[in-house]
Write a structure and sequence with these properties.
The complex is a heterodimer of chains A (about 250) and B (about 250).
Chain A lengths: L9 H15 L12 H8 L3 H13 L3 E4 L3 E4 L10 H9 L5 H24 L2 H16 L3 H18 L9 H14 L6 H17 L3 H35 L1
Antiparallel strand pairs in A: 1-2
Chain B lengths: L8 H24 L12 H8 L3 H13 L3 E4 L3 E4 L10 H10 L2 H26 L2 H16 L4 H17 L4 H9 L1 H12 L6 H16 L3 H26 L1
Antiparallel strand pairs in B: 1-2
Helix pairs in contact in B: 1-3, 1-4, 4-9, 5-7, 5-9, 5-10, 5-11, 6-7, 6-10, 7-9, 9-11, 10-11
Classes of the chains: A mainly alpha (about 250), B mainly alpha (about 250).
Chain lengths: ~250, ~250
Amino acid sequence: MSNLNRGGSGAHAAVAESIGKRIVNGVYSVGSILPNEADWSAEFGVSRSVVREAVKMLTAKGLLTSRPRIGSRVAPRQRWNLLDHNVLAWYAEAPGQSQFLASLQEFRHIFEPEAAAMAARKRTEAQMEKISTACRAMGSAETLSERSIADVAFHNAILEAAGNELLLPLGSLIESTLDRLFLMINRVAGQLRHAQKLHEDIEVAIRRGDPKAARQAVRALLENSDDYIARVQEMNQIHDTTEVAK
Amino acid sequence: MERLRPIDPTALLFEASAAASSLVNMLGREIVAGVYKEGAVLPNEAAMLERFGISRTALREAYSKLTAKGLVQARPRVGTSVRPRVHWNMLDHDVLAWHLQIVPVDEIATDLYTLRRMIEPAAAELAAKMRSDDDVKNISEALSDMRRHATEEAALVEADFRFHVAILTATHNPFINAFSSLIRAAMLTVFEMSWRGAEVIKDQRLKQHETVGDAIRDRRPARARRLMEDLLEESIEDARNADIGDG
């Protein structure tokens, strides 16, 4: 097993990642009692206090519950904080997650059009400026990663402009979807230009203070992503079949 | 005569961790309430130990919990400081609870209702398509508990919460699920409000819940959505009336 003892504050995050992935992948099943501090400390080659930090992190993310004397157990799935950036990322990589993007998109269809409509009604000038800046940055980005960062900023700025604090944590779901989409992006020609136009429609609708148009524009964007995901998955299947044929 | 306590290292750990969790509560509340501003560096370790009369272990334990909640960060040579609000994990049970204690209840209730009206009708529609037989059983058990405890506020609120969560669970979408478990604190606060002072319409409201359950059981998505929209709309009225009654 790899030695994670790199010292510094990164060590416990790396241990938490290893353990977190095993939980999400089902290597440790729900309700099972996990190895103790000493075992993990030996396996990862780190001190027990590093393991303890990692366990605390995972507890805060809802992946495990720990009690003195009994040790740690894997928490029931409903308690896992899937809105947490790390948990989302581990979850996205777990095998058997073909449903992952579909579920994310399903939820985005529920909250994003409405959030944009709220933003069209309530946005301040400063919030509008943030949305517009991100939209322009998307258009002028020279690399895919620059564009991806601007894209995430655009969606987060809309959530913020909706003026409902409870919406903000959902930004992590959008970010995770976009990360996944960007892994696929080169596959379909013309996709970027079209997507840019769809984002600009949203920006204009919010600027004009038109909730209906904003809602509609976000739906169009999400449907475009749905189509895109479906096409890429189709291509992957063809690709997989060819691989097998070789 | 005072009895000597057995020296049990686990017991000592227990004490440290109990002290830490009450410290987490105190500091967390102060940070959320703005006693320590965003970006501000917290008093140094010695000052904290003196103020709270706790051990260094307990203080560090508390800091690491607050760090996990996104409220503070420790930097070498600078110390522990309050992170900007955007990094706070608002859907963490504790953070949300501290927030609820300082924000005017009607403000958080408005935010929560807005969010519920965005999500729950769509979830009811989805549930009517996706529900398993177990889901139907959970929904109907929650409903009969609501009826049985119609006059006991705490049990009623719990059963009502269970009803709404069972519908969110019946969507079989893990993200909608995660969302429901995290807004628990906010929902309970608002539920208590919406039942208070609503005695007169309780029976009608109970029936309304049952019709939502029936639509999901009968796999009628459009009807489930519409009935859930009505239910939430009228719950808001209940809450407003309760507010007026109490104020």
